[in-house]
Amino acid sequence: MVLSIGMIVKNEAENLERCLKSLEPVRNAVQSELIIVDTGSTDSTVEIAGKYADKVLHFEWCKDFSAARNVSLEASSGEWFMFVDADEWFGDSGGLIDFFKSGEYRKYNSAVYIQRNYTTKDINGHYIDYTALRLTKRLMNTRFVNPVHEYLNTAGEPIKLLNSFVHHFGYVNLNPGDHENKRKRNLELIEKRIAEKDDDVSPYIQLFDSYFGFDNAKAAECCRRGIEINKKYKVNKYAEFVLLKLCALAWYNEKKYEKALEVINEYRRLRNDSRNIEDFIVTDLEIAALSVYTYLKLEMKEAVRDECGKYNELYKTYKKGKYNIAEVLLCAPRFTGNEEFVNINIIFIGSLIEAGKFSTAYEKRNAVPYNTVIKHTGYRYVSKLIGYDFEIAKGTGKYSIIKTLFGQIKDFDECLRMFEYNLIKAVGENDNTDEKAELINYAYNFINEYSPPYNFIKFVEMNKMYYCGNGFDVHEVINFISEFKILPVYSAGLLYFSLKSGNAVSPVISKINPYGFKEYYDNISDKKDFLRVLIQYLEDAGGIPFKEQVWFIAVIRFLFSAVKESRDVYDLFVLYAALQKNYIYTAVNPEYINDGMIVSLPDSDKAAYYCFRAAENLKSMDGEKAMDYLKKALRTDNSLRNVYPAAAEIFGEGYRAKMYPAGLSAYEAEIDILGSQIKEKIRGMIYIGYNAMASKLLLDYSELNPGDPEINALSSEVNALTADR
Fold first, then answer.
1. Quick count: other Cβ atoms within 10 Å of Cβ 59?
2. Contacts of 316 (CB under 8 A, 6+ apart)
3. Which residue pairs, CB below 8 angstroms and at least 24 apart, start in 437-443?
4. Which of 6, 80, 89, 260 satisfies CB 3.0 to 4.6 Å to 22 for a cystine?
5. What is the DSSP string of 608-671?
6. Which 3 state secondary structure label does DSSP give 294?
7. Cα–Cα distances in angstroms (integers) from residue 306 to residues 67, 292, 296, 360, 581, in the given order
8. 703 has a pLDDT exceeding 80
9. Which string of DSSP letters, residue by residue, matches 320-347?
10. What H or E segment, with its residue span, contains residue 146?
């Protein structure tokens, strides 16, 4: 028998079959046996195991993982032994199969494969690769040792790194309670191990793993304890370096960046005294990565660039595989994967651009082509990279280099929108008419190669017309948008162009639903500039048709919640109030437009009236009256909530004192009073069975005051009422 595969299981019915099916290619290709030891399952685990295993054994759990695993080891007969966990499964077993079929296994004493530990529940999400020593030549004295984080005592060099990996979601799938129970169990077993054998350094690394993320200061302390043990007993020449790295990581995770940097420098002083530099390449690489992130947090920009450069040089050596794998076995490397390489190089490129080193940024940019980024990290970095490409082009003055960079893209669908946005920005910033025309023409031809939707091509033509011609031709725009009832969200830039040029505004906004404006806003690349263009258009516009006034009122109402800067909120409110004034004098009999009569009109009319009255008093710096009108407006238009603090900030402390005699808490008190009134209405509706009305009012209130702890309880009452019906 060449290979024995051993497993211990308990209540793994949800995972076991997937794991065992992934082992079938190995078992079909290599002479092997499968031995499963059950430690007390109460679900269908034993039945599933019986369908695949050569032997299913039973073991009474005694809080010792090694004891359980040794049962499978003692029952095995293979030349080699491999142990696998039920909650992992092979994503690629080709390297493992080749290792045995080729006879290469005869040259080695042990072998490792990669355990891909996911940090999210998405198989395409973030993960950390751990080098798992799971295979060894079976000798007479081969045993598992350690009650937890067990390992094979005879595993050693030469060790083969197999080109195979398993998926592992074990920690992600645990609920918080199970995670804490598992952590406490491990701590108990590790401390027991330390009490029994005080000259072993590995339990301190295991203690770090148990405390890391829960009590980072304690995790750092465990590293220090391990370093002292290693110095005392000279256990492992790699241990002190690894423990210092983990100690720095603990302080970084604790947001104690100065302390993290102290430990990093301590590590490097120790490394300067070390003779065999190549032996520590993995930990050196980890320290360089951790330095990048630490200096980034400390805003030491030049140091960030230096550490990125060091990381890249070390990464080249690491990828050659010329490192001592015993160093890797002490703990899982966290910063050596392809995703980490991409992330650090994106930081590198950004820091070079910020320093004005555009040529070097272009050189480094070519080290992370789009396909590499998409393969290893998905699309979340693509928009940032596209933005960097245009920054590099602008900085070098050579927009033609974008052709080289975008020539790397093979799967363009997800990149198309960001390309278009940055194209708009780059062309708009470029004063060279010839380069502007060259770039837009290139983009038009380039995009056509990927056969995007016809409508998108037409939109690029709109870009071309705007930037390479003499502005929008209204007839061309109308022809383009005539095909739609509602303008596609990818054409959100068309609104930007029309507002900026002052042409074709009416036809464009007639095709955009203002109450679904969030989707369009999300698809506008330069939101700050869009806001500036919108405000400028409204300030310059003369008589805006009534229907358009209503459209802009709805859009600004959304923007109050989307815009962050107080000055922008205030400027929008001034325009909003002016539009509301025009609206009220158009839609309402003038006899009703006063404090006494307005109360008899619908809420929308009252909101319009109170808004423009508040704006008039803001302009005259009468804070008391402004506050009174704003309070009344808020009762009928909850989108105005952000206007209060924005106005106070714009006018400074003196105005704030007028507007809020008791400070901003007065405003908060107003919200509480208003909230109490609304919640009473909701409870009344629930009582008489008006669930739809209660649900709608509750939704409005949750937008007004999302932090109210009573929202969830009211929501449950509404849902219960709906279910009863």
1. 17
2. none
3. 437/467, 437/468, 438/399, 438/400, 439/399, 439/400, 439/402, 440/464, 440/467, 440/468, 441/468, 442/400, 442/402, 442/403, 443/419
4. 89
5. HHHHHHHHHHHHTT-HHHHHHHHHHHHHH-GGGGGHHHHHHHHHHHHHHHHH-TT-HHHHHHHH
6. helix
7. 49, 8, 11, 13, 58
8. no
9. TT-S-HHHHHHS--SS-SHHHHHHHHHH
10. none
Taking the CA atoms of 547, 548, 554 and 560 in sequence, report the sign of the dihedral they define. negative
Q: Cβ of 27: how many Cβ atoms within 10 Å?
A: 18
**3-class secondary-structure state, position 50:** helix
- How many whole angstroms from its chain centre is CA 604? 40
What does the alpha-carbon distance between residue 508 and residue 491 come to, in Å, rounded to a whole number?
10
State the average pLDDT over residues 612-622.
78
CB atoms under 10 Å from CB of 606, counted, come to 19
Cβ-contact 83, 72 below 8 angstroms: yes
Report the 10 Å Cβ neighbour count for 175: 8
**Which residue's structure tokens are 């210092």?**
244
Dihedral sign, Cα of residue 677, residue 678, residue 682, residue 683: negative
- Tokens 């190089």 correspond to 345
> pLDDT for 574-601, tens place per residue?
888 888 888 888 888 888 888 888 888 8
Sign of CA dihedral 339, 344, 347, 353: negative
Q: For residue 119, which of 170, 176, 184 has the smallest C-alpha distance? A: 170
Q: Which of 43-57, 105-119, 335-349 has the highest mean pLDDT?
A: 43-57
Q: How far apart are CA 267 and CA 282, in angstroms?
A: 13
As a whole number of angstroms, the distance between CA 594 and CA 135 comes to 86
Bridge partner list, 81: 4, 136
Question: What is the value of pTM for the model shown?
Answer: 0.59
How far is 499 from 480, CA to CA, in rounded Å? Answer: 17
Cα–Cα dist 437/427, whole Å: 8
In this structure, the chain runs to a length of 725
pLDDT in tens, 4-52: 999 999 999 999 999 999 999 999 999 999 999 999 999 999 999 999 9
Count of CB atoms within 10 A of residue 341's CB? 23
For 599, counting Cβ atoms within 10 Å of its Cβ (0-12 exposed, 13-18 middle, 19+ buried), the class is: exposed
Measured at the alpha carbon of residue 15, what is the angle toward residues 143 and 171, in degrees to the nearest 5?
75
Gap between the terminal Cα atoms of the chain: 67
* Contact (CB, 8 A) for 555 and 563: no
Containing 292, the helix (H) or strand (E) segment is helix 281-297
The alpha carbon of 72 is separated from its chain's Cα centroid by a whole number of angstroms, namely 41
Residue 643 to residues 95, 436, 622, Cα–Cα distance (Å): 63, 40, 16
CA-closest candidate to residue 233, choices 197, 206, 266: 197
Q: pLDDT of 72-92, one tens digit each?
A: 999 999 999 999 999 999 999
Cα angle 530, 463, 504 (rounded to 5 degrees) comes to: 65
Widest Cα–Cα separation across the chain: 103
CA 599 to chain centre: 48
SS3 at position 232: helix
Residues 6+ apart with CB under 8 A from 188: 63
Helices 257-272, 281-297: inter-axial angle, 10-degree rounding: 150
| pLDDT value of residue 158 | 85
Q: What is the secondary structure of 504-570 as a DSSP string? A: SHHHHHTTS-GGGHHHHHHT-S-HHHHHHHHHHHHHH--S--HHHHHHHHHHHHHHHHH---HHHHH
Across the strands, what pairs with 80? 3, 137
Q: How far is CA 219 from CA 188, 253, 521, in A?
A: 15, 10, 45
